[in-house]
Design a protein that fits this description.
153 residues, mainly beta, two-stranded antiparallel sheet, 1 helix, globular
Length: 153
C-alpha cells in the first residue's frame, strides 16, 4: 500500500476509486464580471480555455466526486456540487480535503490541534462536528476545484 505524507509526517494511505474525464475548450471573455455594481459590457475575447483543464492540474490523479451536505458552505462548496479531488495535491493544514474515516468518505478542512489531526467543517450557519483522524484514517486527496450547475428552465 502506498503512503503519503502530511505535515509532521502523518501517514495517509492510498485508495482506488473514481474516474477522470476530459472536456472541450470554450471561449473566455477577459473582462471581469462585476458581482457588485454593473460594469460596461466589453467584447474582449481571450484565447480558448478548457475550464476542466484549468481546474485539473494532474489529470491522472484527479477524480470527480458529488458533494452531499453543506458542511463546506463557507468555502463555497454546496450540496450537489461536483468537486475535483487531486490525489497528487499537497496535504496541508487549512486545505479542503477528501478523507476516508472509519470507512466513510467525507470532505472537510484539514486541521491540527494539540499535535492531533482532525477534519473541521466550514459552515457558520449550521453545526457540524469535527472528525478526529485515527491511524486508519486516510487523506484521500485535496479538493482542487468545484463545479456547480444551475437550472435553466
Amino acid at each position: 500500500m502506498r503512503t503519503f505524507e502530511v505535515e509532521d509526517s502523518m501517514p495517509v494511505y492510498e485508495v482506488k476509486s473514481p474516474i477522470a474525464k476530459t472536456s472541450s475548450p470554450l471561449r473566455l471573455i477577459t473582462t471581469p464580471v462585476s458581482a457588485g455594481f454593473p460594469s460596461p459590457a466589453a467584447d474582449d475575447l481571450e484565447d480558448e480555455i478548457d475550464p476542466i483543464s484549468w481546474v485539473i492540474r494532474h489529470p491522472t490523479s484527479t477524480f470527480w466526486w458529488r458533494v452531499e451536505g453543506n458542511c463546506l458552505w463557507d468555502v463555497g462548496i454546496r450540496d450537489g456540487d461536483l468537486i475535483a479531488v487531486d490525489r497528487a495535491g499537497k496535504r496541508r493544514i487549512g486545505r479542503a480535503v477528501l478523507a476516508v474515516v472509519d470507512g466513510a468518505v467525507t470532505a472537510k478542512i484539514l486541521r491540527k490541534r494539540d499535535n492531533r489531526y482532525f477534519l473541521a467543517p466550514a459552515n457558520t450557519q449550521e453545526h457540524f462536528p469535527d472528525v478526529e483522524l485515527n491511524e486508519d484514517s486516510e487523506i484521500w486527496g485535496v479538493i482542487a476545484g468545484v463545479v456547480r450547475r444551475y437550472p435553466l428552465e
